[in-house]
Design goal:
Two copies of one chain form a homodimer.
Chain A (H helix, E strand, L loop, with lengths): L2 H17 L3 H13 L4 E2 H8 L3 H13 L3 E6 L2 E8 L3 H32 L12 H29 L2
Antiparallel strand pairs in A: 1-3, 2-3
Helix pairs in contact in A: 1-2, 5-6
Chain A binds a DNA duplex (30 and 30 nucleotides) through helix 4 and strand 3.
Chain lengths: ~160, ~160
DNA sequence: TGATTGGTTCGGAATATTACGAACCAAACG
DNA sequence: CGTTTGGTTCGTAATATTCCGAACCAATCA
């Protein structure tokens, strides 16, 4: 196993669980990350990943449909050169942000629910729910979100000037 | 569908994808979140979630094995009252931190690899890789990590005084 | 025009996941 | 002791995931 292959494997495992993708789809993304702007051809993916043409083909189409990869061509060359979409990182940050937003909303809803239950408890009865940590966690989420939005903005600016 | 059932469903979906759990395992956690310190019994989980005894039983054991839930008993009562482990949130933050650490390491490794490839390129050739954004992202990860560690510490302190 | 290149499509096969029911068991109850 | 309560175990059905091979197709080459 070459250095590159090992790194693809590690990256693949990570992407697979982070993005909930099929093993081979994740390996394709990992490969494209490591092949940069020049991209990888269909053929090279087949041989590098040791998978069948059909498998690579279907994963390539679904990854394109999911707006994670694209391709360019060279004149006098019928091959497609696949690369990550240029705003891959920015997109992935968007989904992180969406998840955090969702999580915040859930915490708020849970707090509402818990407050309602606590309120209906008979006097003197110990409360069933501890609400404080929700506020702490919401505070964290808002910090993390701010930090991520800042970075996203920075990258977007940079990206416009390409 | 009651308010509670709807919330369990929403929470369940979220937990399922966030923690990569089986649907019913996630619903169990969601239910326990909403039942607080008093907990839920085996029986109530079976009826509330509309699942079979066997399914609930196996998921309860795996969730205990994964250190996500525990139970307490009341004297003169053979039933087990299941609850989230008291440090559930702190634990989940630990796994987030571990993931971010892993991600940082991967970015560093990728940068090393890319630098190596760029260096071997013939003079005057445009570089294949853009390295700058890795640094930006690493910066973000370190901020997010700091923020999370701070919160974790805060909750740990609070938790010791219970 | 026939063969080669660069892929796509379709019908499974292999495997993994998820939940179920029936049978079982141990403790307590009467 | 027999029965009820509170659960566990095991075999398996239903379904989903993941990948493969064979057949196919369209563009280019010789």
């Amino acid at each position: 196993m070459t250095k590159k292959e090992k790194l693809i494997e590690k990256l693949g495992v990570h992407i697979e669980s982070k993005d909930q993708l099929a093993p081979l789809a994740a390996r394709i993304l990992a490969t494209l990350i490591l092949s940069g702007k020049k991209g990888s051809t269909f053929e090279s993916l087949v041989s590098e990943l040791g998978a069948s043409k059909s498998t690579i083909s279907t994963h390539l189409t679904t990854l394109q449909a999911a707006n994670r990869i694209t391709y360019h061509t060279k004149c006098g060359d019928r091959k497609k050169y696949f690369t990550l979409v240029p705003d891959a990182m920015i997109n992935s940050m968007s989904v992180m942000l969406k998840n955090w937003k969702n999580e915040s909303d859930l915490h708020l809803e849970i707090m509402e629910y818990k407050k309602g239950v606590n309120a209906e408890l008979p006097e003197g009865c110990t409360e069933i729910f501890d609400l404080e940590f929700h506020n702490d966690y919401l505070e964290f989420l808002s910090q993390a979100t701010a930090s991520m939005e800042k970075l996203q903005k920075k990258l977007t600016e940079k990206h416009k000037n390409d």
